[in-house]
Design a protein that fits this description.
415 residues; alpha+beta; Beta-lactamase; 12 strands; 29% helix; 14% strand
Length: 415
């Protein structure tokens, strides 16, 4: 979810940012934008992908290249620990690198729980879409039918909230919010308090006029789910999303609880700007936009569910018609990326990334190749304005799917 104001939202993604490299395309063609100065540049693929294949086989040579790419990004971006999972129809690559705890040297492991930041948005929007399928809400309902006091509430639709096109100010960019959060990172925020920070600012543009990534939208959708679903948001998501999907290691925390085992998180999103351990900070400030916890394996299952609307047993979580609306991804302000209903499409990869102080994640699915990539790491500290999660995503997809590279610019302008 979007970071506090000290590093404002840069358009798409969780925790504030989409910071991906714009690397040379396979075969030597250049993409539109140059590398930022000092960027981590993924190694170019030495050979083209096999004719007709969209994802390379996970041969020993490919696995070795992934290893080297991950270690290179770790070293350059000073990432303490990272776990990577790649699943194709014919193979799997699951591996951890570095440490979960710098003070003890405990190794990073694939089975650790992790905070997933803005990937929470995919769960909140899924809950909303289930209510759409049940006829309890409509995507073109205006938000004032469910939540009072929203600026332009009689004009902003639920579709515009889920698609980041409401025009509402992003509360996590508010100076007073930043001061309150960093003064006491363990304090609890209520959804109405978060909205209060947003609603103190003028609306940015008329609803639907343009794309602008705002966590405020998801706080409102969380309240809509509670109103229409008749349950607390976490309970609704547990019963209607997590349980049907079999995600036993994913949860919506009620406070600062964090199941064991988990890595220690390292962040510079602090009052002083110095690096601190953020493991036990209260994620309530992210709520429906960024508070959830999961594991590498659960995110593997969730990646396909989000992209297809289907559960692992073949049953549907979201109807085909509603899923089609979810995956209608108009262009965003991020070159090469479209954003639908709580989901983005980057060069064919469907999913979301997440960032909360101390943790980042990336969960994406390539439907054309039935391939999943999940990356989780225990820092959110940028490397020269690049988000580590997207550095890993770019470097790995350059190897496994050179025709579908998960590339995002360092600082997309939210205009």
């Amino acid at each position: 979810m979007t970071r506090p104001r000290r590093r404002p939202c840069r358009g798409l993604v969780v925790a504030a940012a989409v910071g991906a490299l714009v690397a040379p395309a396979a075969g030597g063609a250049s993409r539109a934008l140059p590398y930022p100065a000092g960027a981590v540049v993924p190694a170019a693929s030495p050979t083209p992908s096999p004719s007709g294949d969209e994802v390379r086989d996970l041969t020993p040579a490919v696995r070795s290249r992934i290893d080297r790419a991950v270690r290179r990004v770790m070293e350059q971006a000073e990432v303490p620990g990272v776990s990577v999972g790649v699943w194709t129809p014919d193979g799997r690559y699951v591996k951890s690198f570095g440490v979960a705890d710098r003070s003890t040297g405990e190794a990073m492991r694939p089975d650790l729980f992790t905070r997933i930041g803005s990937e929470t948005k995919t769960f909140t929007v899924t809950a909303l879409l289930e209510l759409v399928d049940e006829g309890r809400v409509g995507l073109d309902d205006t938000v004032d039918r469910y939540v009072d006091g929203v600026p332009n509430g009689s004009r902003i639709t639920l579709r515009q909230l889920a698609g980041m096109r409401s025009g509402l100010f992003n509360y996590s960019e508010d100076e007073a919010f930043f001061k309150a959060l960093t003064a006491d990172p363990r304090r609890e925020f209520t959804p109405r308090q978060l909205l209060g920070y947003a609603f103190g600012h003028p609306v940015l543009f008329p609803p639907g006029q343009k794309f602008d990534y705002s966590n405020t939208n998801l706080i409102l959708l969380g309240l809509v789910v509670e109103k229409a679903g008749g349950q607390a948001l976490g309970d609704y998501i547990q019963e209607h999303v997590l349980d049907p999907a079999g995600l036993d290691d994913t949860l919506f925390p009620k406070g600062d609880e964090f199941p064991e085992p988990h890595a220690q998180g390292y962040t510079n999103q602090t009052a002083t700007g110095k690096v601190e351990v953020s493991t036990d900070w209260n994620p309530s400030w992210g709520w429906a936009a960024g508070a959830m916890i999961s594991t590498l394996e659960d995110l593997r299952v969730w990646a396909r569910t989000v992209a297809t609307g289907q559960l692992p047993d073949g049953e549907r979580l979201i109807s085909p018609a509603t899923q089609e609306q979810r995956l209608t991804t108009p262009p965003s302000t991020v070159p090469g990326a479209g954003y639908g209903l709580g989901i983005f499409d980057v060069r064919g990869w469907i999913g979301h990334n997440g960032s909360l102080p101390g943790y980042e994640s990336l969960t994406i699915y390539l439907p054309s190749a039935r391939t999943t990539l999940v990356v989780v790491l225990n820092t959110d500290i940028d490397h020269k304005n690049q988000e580590p999660s997207t550095l890993f995503g770019d470097a790995i997809t350059t190897i496994i799917s050179p025709d579908h590279v998960f590339d995002l610019p360092a600082q997309p302008a939210a205009t």
